[in-house]
Design a protein that fits this description.
The radius of gyration is 27 Å and the shape is globular. The protein folds into five domains: about 60 residues, Helix Hairpins (Orthogonal Bundle), CATH 1.10.287; about 240 residues, DNA ligase/mRNA capping enzyme (D-amino Acid Aminotransferase, Chain A, domain 1, 2-Layer Sandwich), CATH 3.30.470.30; about 80 residues, Nucleic acid-binding proteins (OB fold (Dihydrolipoamide Acetyltransferase, E2P), Beta Barrel); about 150 residues, Orthogonal Bundle (DNA polymerase, domain 1); about 80 residues, BRCT domain (Rossmann fold). It is α+β, with helices and mostly antiparallel strands and about 675 residues long. It contains 24 helices and 22 strands. The mean pLDDT is about 85. Helix 1 runs antiparallel to helix 2, helix 3 runs antiparallel to helix 9 and helix 16 packs across helix 17. The N and C termini lie far apart (about 80 Å). The strands form five sheets. Strands 12, 13, 14, 15, 16, 17 and 18 form a seven-stranded antiparallel β-sheet that branches. A five-stranded mixed β-sheet has the order 2-11-10-3-9. The chain has a four-stranded antiparallel β-sheet with strand order 5-4-7-8.
Length: about 675
């Protein structure tokens, strides 16, 4: 028993550590499958003991829901526990589930099931009184959750009030769509922040922000799967339709299966197309459809007996880590990246994978030369899931964590509230290159031709030493750059000259101030009008502006308090760079004002990026998902599934010809 006791204790500690990382920090230290296998092993060992291993001082993770409770939020007790759902990975698990339920119910006839997508998001509960939202909360530890009402109200498609005399509760999942997730990470990378590992972590992290203004920028969405209270039905699928009629967001997909064989077949069909949704799903949830049977079946300490999740196996590949290199961002953030033996994953060749930070390398004990499993997090970012220790070389050595910057050799520093190490040398060549690349990017000053390779050459030859130096480049100075011909040099100089006429929001974003994204840059430009007014603003002046939270305001004040940055602005002004807000042609288009649009397909008259910018400058918003709050789908050539969904929902379709008409553009 001593050996079993030791093993149980070790498993409990390991699972609790993984729970804390997942629920508190949004870090998936192991895959879902590995976690479930550890939990299953723990349950089997505990069941084989005589019960003496359970005591009042310790709650085993096999008997409790993982907790995402955080400080800074008021706690709310759930009227009905929010439990975890047991997982399955194969046909046999589903058959066993059905047999177990029939035995408990003492019946031989088939059970009707409702099969739904298992959305990889964050569970919520929202309580309404007389049709009006009273509060919303996270699952927490299952018995109580964090109240998130203010953040919850920033989510598209969630009504704060409906025409109803009933008191009721809805539950569902909060998520970030794939397109919005990609855009969020692009913005984070532009601001030199660590990208989120997957959409679920991004949603969880966003929902726990204390500033609703910051939450609103994250494009959170929700889908509802539970209704209880006044007006409810005795059949679960009918409650799904009830929520749809009440204008709550409900998934387009659910399937009624009259027996477990139909459930198994549905799982097979849906796993084959698991990556086709606009949001991330990691499986299906199989629920007893009749509420009365659910009540008879009850629940365990951790899970309802009447539901089970069928988890899809993620697309994975095994390969070798040939090296671990370090990338230095424009604010000095040092990020480790695994250089891989090329391998095909989800139809693409993967040569590199993010390691996120040095804590992850330590946690997973990743070493150069290891055989590792990789998968695409959220089908987007390749990441290392784990090491194949059986194939580890005998002479393998632990990864040596760097103490100095790989580019300038300055000592690295780790701020107390961050997981990343930073090079604090503002003259670091890598930081300067990244700053110049960002300044010249399409979303900032849009200097065509000034890409990473040319920036590297210009800085190595000391032709450019900061972003202001871009405006000192001459055709003559470009003659020393290999591969730079007369035509290319001339075109670059023309593009640099044109960039001087960009509006203030482009300059603000191009400066690369931490936490200042494109939307905040536009809000600041509109509000202050001139760079001088922005530079003299205090935190109180800034926090009342749309898209500007406390963190963003603090970052702006800190940036403009440094003399070197003030001198940089002066150099840009002396070079003729515009430092005032210019109302663009698209600013006054009434069609876009205070409305939400979805863009699909390609357009001949403008790029989707340009169209997006016009909508935002006109006071509208762009969503990646079709929902009831969307005013119109802007439809170009070769549209995707969004056109079908918009048509089905009766949403206005605007084609390119109609779009040009409302924009008053001749075609």
């Amino acid at each position: 028993m001593d050996d079993i006791s030791k093993k149980i204790k070790a498993l409990r500690q390991k699972i609790k550590k993984y729970n804390d990382l997942y629920y508190k920090q949004g870090v998936s230290a192991v895959s879902d499958y590995e976690y479930d296998m550890l939990l299953k092993e723990l349950e089997e060992l505990e069941n084989s003991s005589d019960g003496s291993l359970f005591n009042s001082d310790e709650i085993s993770p096999s008997q409790a829901v993982g907790s995402d409770l955080n400080e800074g939020f008021k706690k709310v007790r759930h009227s009905v526990k929010m439990l975890s759902i047991s997982n399955s990975y194969n046909r046999d698990d589903l058959i066993e589930f059905d047999v177990r339920l029939k035995k408990q119910l003492d019946r031989t006839e088939d059970i009707e099931y409702c099969v739904e997508y298992k959305i990889d998001g964050l569970a919520f509960s929202a309580v309404y009184e007389k049709g009006k939202l009273k509060y919303a909360a996270t699952r927490g530890d299952g018995e109580q959750g964090d109240e998130i009402t203010r953040n919850f109200l920033t989510i598209q498609d969630i009504p704060s009030e409906i025409a109803s005399d009933h008191d009721f509760e809805i539950r569902g999942e909060i998520y970030i769509g794939k397109e919005d997730f990609g855009e969020l990470n692009r913005q984070r990378e532009m601001n030199d922040l660590e990208p989120f590992a997957n959409p679920r972590n991004a949603a969880a992290g966003s929902l726990k922000l204390l500033d609703p203004k910051e939450v609103k920028k994250r494009s959170l969405r929700a889908l509802c799967y539970y209704y209880s209270g006044g007006g409810s039905y005795g059949i679960h699928s009918e409650n799904l339709e009830l929520m749809r009629r009440l204008k709550f967001p409900v998934s387009d997909y659910y399937r009624i299966c009259t027996n477990i064989d139909e459930v198994v077949e549905e799982c097979r069909i849906k796993e084959a197309v698991k990556n086709s949704q606009e949001y991330e799903i990691d499986g299906l949830v199989i629920k007893v459809n009749e509420i009365g049977l659910r009540n008879k079946l009850g629940e365990t300490a951790r899970s309802p007996r009447w539901a089970i999740a069928y988890k899809f196996m993620p697309d994975r590949a095994e390969t070798t880590i040939n090296d671990i290199i370090l990338q230095v961002g424009r604010t000095g953030a040092v990020t480790p990246v695994a250089v891989l033996e090329p391998v095909i994953l989800s139809g693409t060749t993967v040569k590199r994978a993010t390691l996120h930070n040095f804590d992850e390398i330590r946690e997973k004990d990743i070493r150069i030369g290891d055989r590792v499993m990789i998968e695409k997090a959220g089908e987007i970012i390749p990441q290392v899931i784990g090491v194949n220790l059986e194939k580890r070389s005998a002479d393998s050595s632990e990864y040596n964590y760097p103490e100095t910057c790989p580019v300038c050799s300055s000592k690295l520093f780790r701020p107390e509230d961050e997981v990343v190490f930073r090079c604090i040398n503002s003259s670091c060549p890598a930081q300067i290159r990244r700053q110049i690349e960002h300044f010249a990017s399409k979303q900032a000053m849009n200097i065509s031709g000034l890409g990473p390779a040319l920036v590297a050459s210009l800085t190595e030859k000391n032709i450019v030493s900061d972003i202001a130096g871009i405006y000192e480049i001459s055709e003559n100075s470009l003659s020393s750059i290999d591969g730079m011909g007369e035509v290319s040099a001339h075109n670059l100089i023309v593009s640099i000259s044109e960039s001087k006429t960009r509006s203030l929001e482009n300059l603000i974003f191009g400066l690369g101030i931490r936490h200042v994204g494109r939307e905040a840059s536009l809000s600041l430009a509109k509000h202050f009008g001139r760079i001088e007014s922005l530079m003299s603003a205090g935190e109180e002046d800034l926090t009342g502006i749309p898209d500007v939270g406390k963190k963003t305001a603090g970052s702006l004040v800190s940036y403009f308090s440094l003399e070197k940055n003030v001198l940089l602005i002066e150099k840009l002004k002396n070079s003729g760079v515009c430092t005032r807000y210019i109302k663009s042609e698209g600013s006054g288009i009434e069609f876009f004002k205070n409305r939400i649009f979805v863009i699909t397909g390609t357009f001949e008259s403008f790029s989707r990026e340009n169209l997006r910018n016009i909508i935002i400058k006109s006071g509208g918003k762009v969503s990646s998902s079709v929902g009831s709050s969307v005013f119109s789908l802007l439809c170009g050539k070769n549209p995707g599934s969004k056109l079908d969904k918009a048509t089905e929902m009766g949403i206005k379709i605007t084609d390119e010809r109609q779009l040009l008409e409302v924009m008053n553009i001749t075609f």
